[in-house]
Amino acid sequence: MKLNALLRGPRTLYARLALVFIVGLAVAQTLSVWLTMTERDQTMNNVMMGYIEREVTSSVALLDHLPAAERAAWLPRLARRTYTFTLGPGVTGAPPDVELSARVARSIAAGIGKRYPLTANAVPGEPDRLQVHLQLSDGTPLTIDYRPMPGAPLSRWLPVVLLLQLAVLAACCWLAVRLATRPLSQLARAADTLGPDLRAERLPEDGPDEVARAARAFNAMQDRIKMYMTERLQILAAISHDLQTPITRMRLRIDVMDDSAQGAKLQQDLREMETMVKEGVTYARTMHGATEVPCRIDPDALLDSLVFDYVDAGKEIALQGRIGAALVTRPQALRRIVGNLVDNALKFSGAAEIAVAASPAGQVTISVLDRGPGIPAESLEAVFEPFYRLEGSRNRHTGGTGLGLAIARQLALAMDAALSLHNRPEGGLEARLVLKGLA
C-alpha cells in the first residue's frame, strides 16, 4: 500500500521510474554503509579485546613484581587511552550490563583471572565505565579503571566519497530512465500531432528491437490511415462529380414544367441536394487536412472584412473588441470557421455578435453570440458530429445539412485551436474559438 501511494505521486512514467531507482539506490547505499560501519566496529572491538588482554596481563604482572614503593611511579607509564591503574579498592557497583564492558571484563578475566582472582562492576551513573578489582601477591588492592573509547573517527573524505558515489549512481539511473522513456515520449508526441492533416512526424525506426518494432507499427498505421482518408475523399469527390450531371438535367427539365408550384418545390429540393453534396466534399477535405499554409495576418482586419460582407448582405451583425496584434494562423480556415458560426447564429436568432479578446498568454478568443433557443446541455458536443441535427431543427428552413459545425470543428483541430459551445445565462448560445499564435 505504501509503495502504491508513493508511486501515485508522480504523474509521468519517467518520474516514477526515476523515483523507484533513486529511492532503491539510496536505501541500498544506506544499508551498505551501515553494514560496513558495523563490521568495522566489530573488527576494531575484536582487535581491542586481544590488545587489552595482552597489555593488562603484562602490566599487572609487572606491578606484581615491582617493589611496593615503586608501583605508584609506574602507574602513569602503564596507563592507556581507555584504561588506567589505581592502587586501591576503587568503586563498587553492580555487574556490568553493557555489552562492550562485559566483553572487556571477560577479556581481562581470561588473561589474569586464573592467577589473580578479580571482580568487575560498572561505575554507578556511568554504565559504560568499568572497574576491575584484584589483589596483588602481597595483598595490595589494584583497580583497573576502563573507560570505553568512542567509535573510531571517520576519515574526512569518507562522507564526501559516499555522496559522490550516490550522485554518480543517481545520474546513471536518470540517464537509463531517460533513454528508456524517450521512445515513449516520441510516440506520444507523434500521436498528438497526428491530426486531420495526417502529417505527423515519422518515428525513427532504430534503437532496441522493441522500440524499432513499435515505431514501424506506428508509421505503418499512419500510412494506412492516410490511404483510407485519401480513398474516402476520392469517393466523395467522384460522387459529387457524378451527381452534378443528373442534378443539372433535372433542373433543366423542371424549368420547362408547366406546374410552377411543383417546379419551385423541386428546385428547392435540388438546391438542398447540391448543398449537401458540396458540404460533404468540404467536410471530407477538412478531415483529410487543410493544405493552407499558416501565415502572419491582421485578425482585426479579417474580422472587419467578414462583418462588412454580412452587413452589405443586409444581415444584423456586430463586432466588439479588438485584438491589436498580428496572428499566425490559416486565414481562409479561420474565415470559414467564423463564417459557419455566424451563419448558425443568423439562422436560429436572426442576429449575431462577434466578441474578440486577447490574453497575455498569447491566446485569442473569438466568440460568436446569439439570442436563439440555445442547445440542450447533453447535445453541446453531439452537434459537432457529422449530419447530427437537433430534433427541433429538422426542417428545410433551419435544419441545414448537419455539417457546418462538423466542418468548423475539423478546421479548428487542423489549426491547433479549440472550438466549443456554451449556453449563455441570459439566453442564447456562445460559440467560442480559442486560437494560439499571437505574435
Written description of the protein model:
The chain has 439 residues and is of the alpha+beta class. The chain contains 10 helices and 11 strands. The protein has a 5-stranded mixed beta sheet. Strands 1-4-3-2 form a 4-stranded antiparallel beta sheet. A hairpin with a 5-residue loop joins strand 3 (126-135) and strand 4 (141-146). Helix 2 (13-65) runs parallel beside helix 4 (99-112). The two termini are 50 Å apart. Mean pLDDT is 79; it is low at 392-397.
Q: Total helix count? A: 10
Number of strands: 11
Radius of gyration: 46 Å
Structural class: alpha+beta
- Which strand order do you get reading across the main beta sheet? 6-8-9-11-10
Order of helices and strands: HHHEHEEEHHHEHEEHEEHEE
**Shape, please?**
rod-shaped
pLDDT < 50 runs, ≥5 residues: 392-397
Number of domains: 3
Strand content: 15-25%
Largest sheet: 5 strands, mixed
Provide mean pLDDT, rounded: 79
Helical content class: 40-55%
Give the N-to-C terminal Cα separation: 50 Å
